[in-house]
């Protein structure tokens, strides 16, 4: 298919310069790593590649929410796309496998775990895919023994295919160290790398320390109450806007969701173990509810453009993860806000989580994760530096000029 015809089907007038460079790299059968901020349009690269090649392209996604969202949008535009996941019945999976064998699909979305299924591998080897695309490729660096090890088996699967496909990797957040690790783990050390800046001009960054001077565990109920009061206040100020509230455990997600519903807010919740994931995603995507309370199982690459506010009820385990999730706001380019709520005890818990090896990290990986966590701690504690400048420095860019009005520190000068 001609590129012009493919873009017309996707309702796109033209590719951006980096998208064109990336697509031409893949079409020239050269591996690719693209590092661009959220909402830049990375998914359009592998979508247009599949349509131009008119051959099956496999897209590896980390989460079901992302997988379902991508497929829904492509099917709405008439693109032959499908997914294979654990939510499907045996009959549904057989139907998708049959479409693969008959050459009917252009895009197949799978998680790394589903990619290791023997029947899936057999069907894909026979289909002779044109490309393997790893979306949210930074996830390759966050896996290890006992936790999503199948990310580390992607390279083995690619090398098992009868005809070597071109490999593309895409992410919005990668330090120079992470970049090298991605290339090594995927076996594409000679890949062409396209790197853009991490700054999002339309997102204002804000931080609120909650319960300063209060003890950690002893005052946890009071700290939680104050966080909830702030969240409710922000939701009332943003009445009618679409909002994501992230927190770090399933228990916290469900308790916060129940609390918000009792306060009169129409909210949905989402985490890795909840039922009816497609229904929950659809309720939020369609606007039936305006507030989504979630763990990091929701959000990576989910293309809901008009999210005006992203609140973190508690800090994550690194400035890289925080930048990724804050970037869910304002994908339509309009002014939006990312707010981080924190107490010192939150970071104590996160350090313990890492150091007690619950993430199964060792050596350089452990050091890298602790560095990312301390960078987020510095970001939260800082009252003077430009927050966007701190993020740029963390990702290996020059801090540059102050953002003036796109973070609370610069606004308060």
From TrEMBL:
UniProt keyword annotations, A-Z: ATP-binding, DNA-binding, Helicase, Hydrolase, Isomerase, Metal-binding, Nucleotide-binding
Name of the molecule in the record: ATP-dependent DNA helicase RecQ
Organism of provenance: Butyricicoccus faecihominis
Broadest EC class assigned to this enzyme: isomerase
Record's catalysed reaction(s): Couples ATP hydrolysis with the unwinding of duplex DNA by translocating in the 3'-5' direction
Keyword Metal-binding assigned: yes
Keyword Isomerase: yes
EC number per UniProt: 5.6.2.4
